[in-house]
Amino acid sequence: MNRNFNDGLNFFSKLTRKRIWNALKVIYSFYESKFTGKAIHRGLPMSISFEPTTSCNLRCPECPSGLRSFTRPTGMLEETLFKKTINELADSLLYLIFYFQGEPYLHPKFLELVKYASQKGIYTATSTNAHYLSDAIARRTVESGLDRLIVSIDGTTQDVYQQYRVGGKLEKVLDGTRNIIKWKRLLKSKTPHVVFQFLVVRPNEHQIEDVKKLANEIGVDELGLKTAQIYDYEQGDPLIPTIDKYSRYAQQSDGSYQIKNSMDGHCWKMWHSCVITWDGKVVPCCFDKDAHYRLGDVSETSFQHLWQSEAYRNFRQSLIRSRSEIEMCKNCTEGTQVWA
Question: Which H/E stretch holds residue 164?
Fold first, then answer.
């Protein structure tokens, strides 16, 4: 409880008058759009995800990076492009996620990018498979000012872990996490807030209680039990959990599966956040993994111009009109994290 409280205090410490004012404009615009049926936006995003790279060392199923199934190119985020965008958004931006696809720590300047954003008072977070958290890198991570570190741990034994994290070594994940916690203690740092994220799938659902115990033993700050997105779920899939609470999909009387989301025609993400790929393409959200719905390019124009563009306005309007018409929305669920 105290650890989550400290993280909350840290997050709220990032608030400034400009960020609060921008947040109020975003919230008002969202509800005005919802009630009027017209896509209106007067602010800038409160949160963005920046993709350091599409490269990954693992081959996880249901992941385009792991499957090497992208139609878009693989590459590394350029430092100049990142800084240009952050400089433009720093006054209004509250939350920056260094993740979309790929393993962030494969980017050679990843922690330098984190430090740049942290020095501007932005809350920074990333998600990692934790295979590169050597003692030296763990120390640099703590020193970078990173606020939140999400560690993917999808099994408490190697035989179960590797069924989803194909090519991964559980011991590396545990050693890397211990390194982070050690350097937090030695440097007397409250950050990063370390989260074990357990993607609940059928092969590991019997280890939920085990991962709770492991989280306590390692000393992480938080455990998140996350539901899995399955691409071809209609006829079932071996990864869909048998525990309904942790499944995004409900089995029908004929044996087929349907997504639980009701598709209400509104999407808060389209008003408060977006994703920027490693090469500068802006896409609506993290469900557009192959960047099919590109709404602009920050290497070609200012972010503010892009955010208020006709293309973005038309996309938000299409969501209001009928969210079910948009392909990526058909496999979307909000609130898919269960905190333990």
Answer: helix 158-164
Distance CA 293, CA 289 (A): 10
Nearest 5°: CA angle at 181, between 178 and 182?
A: 85
pTM over 0.90: yes
Tens-digit pLDDT profile for residues 24-41:
999 999 999 999 999 999
The values of phi and psi at residue 132, to 5°, are -120, 15
pLDDT tens readout for residues 100-154: 999 999 999 999 999 999 999 999 999 999 999 999 999 999 999 999 999 999 9
Q: In the structure encoding, which two tokens stand for residue 241, read together?
A: 């959990």
Q: Quickly list DSSP for 20-64.
A: HHHHHHHHHHHHHHHHHSS----S--SEEEE--BS--S---TT-H
Buried b (16+ CB within 10 A) or exposed e, 262-291: eeeeebebbbbbbbbbbbbbbbbbbbbbeb
Write out the two tokens for 61: 């199923």
Residue 340 banded pLDDT, cuts 50, 70, 90: low
